[in-house]
Write a structure and sequence with these properties.
By secondary structure, the protein is α+β, with helices and mostly antiparallel strands. The protein has two domains: about 90 residues, no CATH class; about 300 residues, no CATH class. About 15% of the residues lie in helices and about 35% in strands. The chain is elongated and about 130 Å long.
C-alpha cells in the first residue's frame, strides 16, 4: 500500500516537470518566431537578392523580352544585356484575383542583381519585366548614316528647289566641319520636348541646330502660323541703328561685353518661351554653340548712330554682292552663348534661299514672314534713320524689314552632340525622337 502511494507521487512530479519543460520550449519557439516576424532579412533569388520580411513575400515572376518584343516567363534573372522595364514592372497584393499595385515598393536592377525594397504587406507578389538593352543611337550619327551622299555647294547664286532626301552638304570653317541640309529634304524632322523641329545643321562642335516647326497640338507642320511660336517686333524702336542688336547698348555698334546689353524685344519673348517650355531640358541644350548677330560693316561703310547715315552690314556683302554666305562669326561680341536664338540669313542662304528671290520649294519656306537675327542695313530716311534686319519672306525669299514691325518667331536651339534617339528615320511621319 505504501509502495503504491509513493509510485503515484513520483508520477505526479514527472508530469509537473514535463509541463514546465513544454512551457519553456514553447516560450522559446514563440519568441524566436516573433523575432523573425519583426526583423527584415534577405533571401537569394537565383543570382540576386530581395529584401523582405519573412511573412510578406509570396512570389516573384520574371519575364524576359524576345527579339520581337514579346515577353516569356523565365526562372533566371538575366545577368547582362538587359534593362529592367521600370514602367511595366511592379509589386502588389492579390484582391479577389486582381493585383493591386503597391507604389511604395521600389525595384532596382543593377549589375545583374535585383533589389526589391519597402515591402510591408503580406501576400505581396512582384512581376519583373526585362527588355533587351539597346545600343544608344546618337542623333548626329543617325543623320550622317542615313545620308546616301555628302556634297559641297560651290555656288550660292541660285536657289535650291529640288528634293534632297538622302543628301547632306558640308562646309569647313575655322572651327571645323559643319554638315547642313539644303533644298527640300524629307529626312530632317525631329521630335523633342513635346515640339517638332527641322534640322538646320550639325555644328562644328557636333551639336545639332534645330528650328521650330510645330507642337504636340499641331503636329509637325511645314507651313502656316503653327510653324512659329507667335509674332513679335524684333525691337520696339527702329529709329537708331543699334536696334538691330539682339541685345544693344545705346549709341554703340554693339555691347562692350559678350551677352551684355539691353535685351531686344524678340530676345525677351524667346527667353520667356524657353523658360516656360524647355527649362526642364537645360542639360540637353548647348549654350556654347552660339548664335551670331553679325554687326560688322560691309566693305566701304562706317557704322554711325546719326539719323543721316546710311550703311550696310557685312551680311549684305556676302548675300547680295559676293553670293558667299558664311557660318563664321567674326566678332565674339556678336556671338551669343545662350540657349535659344534665331536663324541667320547666311544659314538661310546655305539652305537654298536667295536674296529677294522667291523659293517655295525649300524646307525653310513656311508661307509666313519670320525674323532672322542678321542685321541688313540702316537707312537715312527723313526725319529719322530706320534699322533693318533680314527676314524670310512669306514666299521663301530672303528680304529685310524695319525692326519695329511684327513678324513670326521661330526659335532655334542647339542639342548636345550626345543627344540620343529612341526611334524614327527623320521623316515627317517618323521623326527622330530625342529622349
Amino acid at each position: 500500500m505504501e509502495f503504491e502511494v509513493l509510485k503515484r507521487s513520483h508520477a505526479k512530479r514527472n508530469i509537473i516537470i514535463g509541463v514546465i519543460v513544454v512551457f519553456i520550449i514553447s516560450a522559446i519557439i514563440l519568441n524566436f518566431t516573433s523575432a523573425k516576424y519583426r526583423v527584415a532579412d534577405s533571401v537569394p533569388i537565383i543570382n540576386s537578392e530581395i529584401n523582405y520580411k519573412v511573412p510578406d513575400l509570396n512570389m516573384v515572376s520574371l519575364y524576359v523580352a524576345n527579339e520581337d518584343g514579346t515577353y516569356i516567363e523565365e526562372d533566371v534573372i538575366p545577368s547582362s544585356g538587359y534593362t529592367l522595364n521600370t514602367e511595366q514592372s511592379y509589386c502588389g497584393q492579390s484582391n479577389n484575383g486582381d493585383i493591386v499595385k503597391d507604389d511604395t515598393v521600389s525595384i532596382v536592377y543593377e549589375n545583374g542583381s535585383i533589389s526589391v525594397n519597402n515591402i510591408t504587406k503580406k501576400r505581396t507578389k512582384c512581376y519583373l519585366y526585362f527588355d533587351v538593352e539597346k545600343t544608344p543611337l546618337f542623333l548626329k550619327d543617325s543623320i550622317l548614316d542615313n545620308a546616301t551622299s555628302q556634297l559641297i555647294r560651290s555656288s550660292f547664286a541660285s536657289t535650291i528647289t529640288n528634293t534632297t532626301t538622302g543628301t547632306i552638304y558640308y562646309a569647313d570653317t575655322s572651327k571645323g566641319r559643319t554638315y547642313y541640309f539644303a533644298g527640300n529634304p524629307t529626312d530632317n524632322w525631329v521630335q523633342f520636348a513635346g515640339f517638332y523641329w527641322r534640322i538646320i545643321r550639325i555644328n562644328e562642335d557636333e551639336s545639332i541646330r534645330l528650328i521650330y516647326s510645330g507642337n504636340s497640338e499641331s503636329g509637325p507642320v511645314e507651313t502656316g502660323e503653327a510653324t512659329q511660336i507667335g509674332t513679335s517686333a524684333f525691337n520696339s524702336n527702329d529709329n537708331y541703328s543699334y536696334y538691330v542688336g539682339y541685345t544693344y547698348t545705346t549709341n554703340r555698334q554693339r555691347p562692350t561685353i559678350q551677352n551684355g546689353g539691353t535685351p531686344s524685344t524678340i530676345k525677351e519673348l524667346l527667353d520667356k518661351w524657353y523658360n516656360d517650355n524647355l527649362k526642364d531640358y537645360d542639360n540637353m541644350i548647348m549654350e556654347e554653340s552660339g548664335f551670331c548677330n553679325d554687326r560688322n560693316m560691309a566693305d566701304g561703310y562706317t557704322w554711325s548712330t546719326t539719323s543721316s547715315s546710311k550703311f550696310y552690314y557685312a551680311a549684305t556683302d556676302r548675300l547680295e554682292n559676293n553670293k558667299r554666305p558664311t557660318f563664321e562669326c567674326n566678332n565674339n561680341l556678336d556671338l551669343y552663348s545662350i540657349k535659344t536664338g534665331l536663324l541667320t540669313a547666311d544659314e538661310a542662304a546655305y539652305a537654298g534661299g536667295l536674296l529677294y528671290t522667291s523659293n517655295i520649294h525649300y524646307y525653310l519656306y513656311s508661307n509666313q514672314k519670320y525674323w532672322t537675327m542678321s542685321p541688313h542695313y540702316n537707312t537715312s530716311t527723313t526725319p529719322s534713320s530706320r534699322a533693318r534686319v533680314f527676314v524670310i519672306g512669306s514666299d521663301g525669299n530672303i528680304g529685310s524689314n524695319d525692326v519695329n514691325l511684327t513678324y513670326g518667331v521661330r526659335p532655334v536651339i542647339n542639342l548636345r552632340s550626345d543627344a540620343t534617339i529612341s526611334e524614327g528615320n527623320g521623316t515627317i511621319n517618323s521623326p527622330y525622337i530625342v529622349y
